[in-house]
Amino acid sequence: MWYNNILETIGNTPLVKLNKIVKDIPATVLAKIETTNPGNSIKDRMALKMIEDAEADGRLKPGGTIIEGTSGNTGMGLAIAAVIKGYKCIFTSTDKQSKEKFDALRAFGAEVIVCPTNVDPEDPRSYYSVSSRLIKEVPNSWKPNQYDNLSNSQAHYEQTGPEIWDQTEGKITHLIVGVGTGGTISGTAKYLKEKNPNIQILGIDTYGSVFKKYKETGVFDKNEIYPYITEGIGEDFLPENVDFSLIDHFEKVSDKDAALMTREIALKEGIFAGNSTGSAVAGALQMKDRFKEGDLVVIIFPDHGTRYLGKMYNEDWLRERGFLKDEKLTAREIIATKESSEIITIDSEKTVLEAIRTIKAMNISQIPVTQQGMVIGKITESDILDAMLDNPGLRSAAVKTITTPPFPFVDLNASIDKISSMINKDNIAVLVEDDKGEIEIITQYDIINAMAG
Questions:
Q1: pLDDT digits (tens, 9 = 90+) for 254-293
Q2: Structural domains of the chain, with CATH
Q3: Active-site residue numbers?
Q4: Which of 204, 379, 402, 404 is 20 to 30 A (C-alpha) from 293?
């Protein structure tokens, strides 16, 4: 058996039992693994549905351009379908999304415009507003508008809901879904509740989003809105695809818990999933008292871990946000092991001869160069030697004439792995600003000394 094109492989994703990660939940917990779709996310389903519906009623015409605001996954689904069907794509997104998502979209020929995150949806700079403006400017274009286009939830009513019902033989008791556009949870819930109204639909929200409070109070509270890191869920407005009447409860999950759980799923279940999956599983554990023995809980795993390699799967990224503390040495601990001494610097207007004397007197091999007290560069023994061999008369020249780019700065929480990777023959040290605002230098010797200590 074969498929006529890649679009025919969308859907029919596996349901996999979770074990170690949910050992504290008395129920059976199953993961709906949407990463087996060709675009590695659940958004392939609704992307294709939105295109097919638009083709059917004439909104999308042959050779047209698809313009959409997307965090990446919907864009991927649209881009893949566009390749097969002969459309162009322009996507707007926010600067909080991972670089890997943008690179993937561009790999399918899409144009990606990155917009600021921390602006209101109505702001002309927002990714919603920019995509709406482009629709007016680009001829023969169509905006799917995944938030308010009900083909989104309809795709899940027609596909995801029936698949889960059949795969669980109608035994599902709870569905857990991260809520962003609302299409997945609303469409799937509509189908499942038609089959069994007692099935509990549990939405996962994030701090900084309006969904939970709106569900519980009916009040759209702008004070609930603030920047957050978690990708793919939560919103600062109410998409038409979110049918609150179908959602029984919202559970908020913090950025930190979502990020760390994303990593735990890979380590304990061998499933390489994305950030919103971490939110969903963390939320399930927070709600464990809702479940009892004999219950059958299904959690949607929307997308793949490769989109988050630079973030949730990067230890330094986690440390810089205070999410991760482990036994590896950090810059803070390395400078704590050094003997207390003032960092030696040299002003850029001093002569090369003075630099040579300083290096000799202090028994050091490199000096940060300052200008009005600010580090602007560096000189090393090899810099001086190379310069003097070329022009022996440089001894009386200003240090700034042979200054090379400064040693890079690292965060106090930077790991020994990151620091070591930055030190090489061209860059023999790094700088770090301590808690008092003073500059410290870390060399290979300092790293070795800290490890030995």
A1: 999 999 999 999 999 999 999 999 999 999 999 999 999 9
A2: 9-41+150-318 (3.40.50.1100), 62-139 (3.40.50.1100), 331-452 (3.10.580.10)
A3: 43
A4: 204
